Amino acid sequence: MTRIDNHAIAAMTDDTNLVRLGRGEAYQACDTVNPPVWRGSTILFPTLAALEAAEAAPPAAHAPSSYGRQGTPTAAAFEAAMAALDGAFKGFALPSGMAAMAAAIIGFVKTGDHILAPDNVYAPFRRIANGVLRKMGVMVEYYPPLIGAGIAERLRPTTRLVYTEAPGSLTFEMPDIPAIAAAAHAGGAVVLMDNSWATPLFFKPLAHGVDVVIQAATKYIIGHSDALVGVITTTKDHWQTVNEAVRGLGYHTGPDDCYLALRGLRTMAVRLARHQETGLKLADWLADQPEVVRVLHPARPDDPGHALWRRDFSGASGLFAIALRPMPTAALAALVDSLSLFGMGYSWGGFESLILPVQPHKVRSATGWDETQRLLRIHAGLETPADLITDLAQGFVRMRAAL
Ligand SMILES: *Cc1c(COP(=O)(O)O)cnc(C)c1O
Q1: CA 229 – ligand 1 centroid, Å
Q2: Mean pLDDT per 10-residue run, the chain (403 residues)?
Q3: In 10 A of CB 330, how many CB atoms?
Q4: Which of 94, 135, 136, 332, CA to CA, is 20 to 30 A from 226?
């Protein structure tokens, strides 16, 4: 099929022109700074020989797409950028962080396999474990987040995967990733890590023994609370397993969302530096309040995970938690309900500050958590730190009045 010739179509009917007009120039490179949002389901083959060559080709990590579900060049640009940032062989865009998690896990396991996951894992992980994995006959066992090399004792001959996250969701304990990875590999297991908190700017999982990384690009990568995207990056040894799962489950990530993720990367370093700085300032102020029993933030020197964070990470993002002493719900509501700069809602990593009461004891199954304390997860946004502290201070005054 020849490309569109705009001069030749004048004699055709409007119906035919509607199909053909304007498709010629669209393929010619215009040297914009950013790759375009490249939409497409069908990808045309110019000749029979090209079609047959594409059909005969074995799966290759960086082959061009032959159908839109595999992504257009917009997705490929984002995937290549993520692979390079992670020092990975291959990156995959997924429609959400949760989808990345599910595809990566399902790709590696079969009936009878055993998975080890930390008890502070991102809570919706348990939906995969209790749903699809249980139906497949795959068993998930939760381990204490600070187990370190002790993970060796939990490994079974059927342990296919050791899942990790650093720091863990809600409670921010810092695991020893290299020690867990070394023990897992000695036992023949593959190591997955959720690196959404640190991003590749502050932690490189593959350089610390991890095999496959999943990330919620929804958070810091997109950074503007306006889209959901997930990423899987993998070493060369495992890319085909991941590819089988991602393609076999039919995942596709829209080019608009891949574009937003790629654009988010451009400013991520400056945003993260600010999120980190503001997060630490808020944590300092909060630590001085008498109602705050503990600040859970591995970049603070008094945090139990600080030494490991210092050894392995080059920075902290803006997400942490505080534990408040036991108080009536009305006092907690007085604090969170009338803040003007902190929104209350799920997700994080956007430009705006968030505060969220969380209840880890309700999701944990292998380790306990003191349920009398009120835990607040805080995301430090890009507002001026002093304004955020003023807002929190007013909230604390209202909370005290309600006590
Ligand atoms: C939000 C989040 C996810 C899931 O990402 P979505 O894009 O919301 O599906 C996974 N892991 C962690 C640690 C998260 O915070």
Answers
A1: 9
A2: 53 82 66 90 95 91 91 94 96 98 98 98 98 98 98 98 98 98 98 98 98 98 98 98 97 97 96 98 98 98 98 98 96 96 97 97 93 94 98 98 95
A3: 11
A4: 332
Tell me what pLDDT residue 1 has: 45
Strands (E), 79-194: 90-94, 114-118, 139-143, 159-165, 190-194
Q: How far, in Å, CA of 311 to CA of 319, rounded?
A: 19
Q: Measured from the CB, is residue 199 less than 6 Å from ligand 1? A: no
pLDDT of residue 28: 61
CA dist 344 and 337 (Å) reads 8
Q: Which of 194, 211, 257, 312 is catalytic?
A: 194
- Residue 194 appears among annotated catalytic residues: yes
Cα separation, 114 vs 130, whole angstroms: 13
* Cβ atoms < 10 Å from Cβ of 295: 23
CA 253 – CA 227 distance, rounded (Å):
11
Q: Report the distance separating Cα 148 and Cα 181, nearest Å.
A: 9
Helix (H) or strand (E) holding 354: strand 354-358
Our answer on whether the CB atom of 96 is closer than 6 Å to any ligand 1 atom is yes
d(CA 231, CA 83): 9
Question: 105-135 in b/e burial notation, b at 16+ Cβ within 10 A?
Answer: bbbbbeeebbbbbbbbbbeebbebbeeebee
pTM above 0.70, yes or no: yes
Return the residue whose CA atom lies nearest to atom 4 of ligand 1.
Answer: 97
| Distance linking the first and last C-alpha atoms of the chain | 76
